[in-house]
Every structure is written in C-alpha cells, then in structure tokens.
Amino acid sequence: MSAIKLEQIEGHDAGLKAALTEAHLPTDDIEDHGRTFFRAQSSDGRAIGFLGVERCGDDFLLRSVVVLPDYRGQGLGSVLVERAVASLDHAGDVFLATTSAAPFFTRIGFSEVQRDSVPAAVLATRQLSSICPSSATIMKLIKPPT
C-alpha cells in the first residue's frame, strides 16, 4: 500500500475519536487549539490510520499514532510517522510520550530521553503535564524513519 495520503482533519473528527478510543489513546485534549491531526488514506480513499502533531515553540510533540486494526502488521505505522515528520518545518526536535509502544518507536528512530532534558514547551503540553502518567516513556527522534 504505497500510495498513502495524509489528509488534515479537525480534532472533533468522529473517525479520529473512535480510533483513539479503540486503541486506548487519550482524547481529552484533541479539540484544543494548536493540534494538527491527519487521517491516513489508501489510494482508494479508505481510512487506514490517524496521527497528530502539536507544535511546542520550535519543537513538536508527535501524538496519537494509530493504524486501524485491518491494516496493522504491514509496516504502515512507520510510513505514517515518516510522512508526518517529513511535513514538519524541522525548526526543532520531535518528541513523543508512550506507555506501550516504546519498542515500535525505537525501531523507527526514536530514543528514550529523561524528562529533565525535554524542552519546557513540550513538558507544558496537556499531554505531558496532565494526561499521560508520569511513568510514560518520553522519546526524541534521533534519526528520521526510513
């Protein structure tokens, strides 16, 4: 499935909310200002997944990466992250927080970082300041996914 298109959507998109809920990912702040979400679509227009990016000063917080169940196991998660990262203006670094997907993100170029090395603007996001548990793994993109 090489022809994947990312279409920007609003945080109130029903498909986004349903996919995040089913994947046990937070939806508390997806309608807040400053978040950009995308629906990944196949060449025939079928939704295959979702992801979001939140700008934090010069840096970014990658969030809510989910591949829909029928499309899992095909390497599409890394394609979605690669496309999202490629679309950023690369002014700064890309961070994420995860409670269960650290091995996946490690395979595609992220590395665990200590909370005290994360920029204040990233730490101040609702995602990191109140939604994710303090036990969440915080990761930084070291090399873009290929």
Structural summary, described in words:
The chain is α+β, with helices and mostly antiparallel strands. 25% of the residues lie in helices and 30% in strands. It has 5 helices and 7 strands. It has helices at residues 14-22, 76-86, 102-107, 120-123, 126-131; strands spanning 5-9, 35-41, 47-56, 59-67, 94-98, 110-112, 137-141. Strand 4, helix 2 and strand 5 form a beta-alpha-beta unit. The longest helix is centred in the middle third of the chain and has 11 residues, at 76-86.
Topology:
Layout (H helix, E strand, L loop, with lengths): L4 E5 L4 H9 L12 E7 L5 E10 L2 E9 L8 H11 L7 E5 L3 H6 L2 E3 L7 H4 L2 H6 L5 E5 L5
Parallel strand pairs: 4-5
Antiparallel strand pairs: 1-2, 2-3, 3-4, 5-7, 6-7
Question: What is this structure, in a nutshell?
Answer:
With 146 residues, the protein is α+β, with helices and mostly antiparallel strands. The protein contains five helices and seven strands, in the order βαβββαβαβααβ.
Note the gap between the termini.
Answer: 16 Å
Number of helices: 5
Strands in their spatial order, largest beta sheet: 1-2-3-4-5-7-6
Low-pLDDT runs of 5+ residues are: none
Query: How much of the residues is beta strand, in percent?
Result: 25-35%
DSSP E strands, number: 7
Helix share of residues? 10-25%
Key phrases:
single chain, 146 residues, alpha+beta, seven-stranded mixed β-sheet, 25% helix, globular
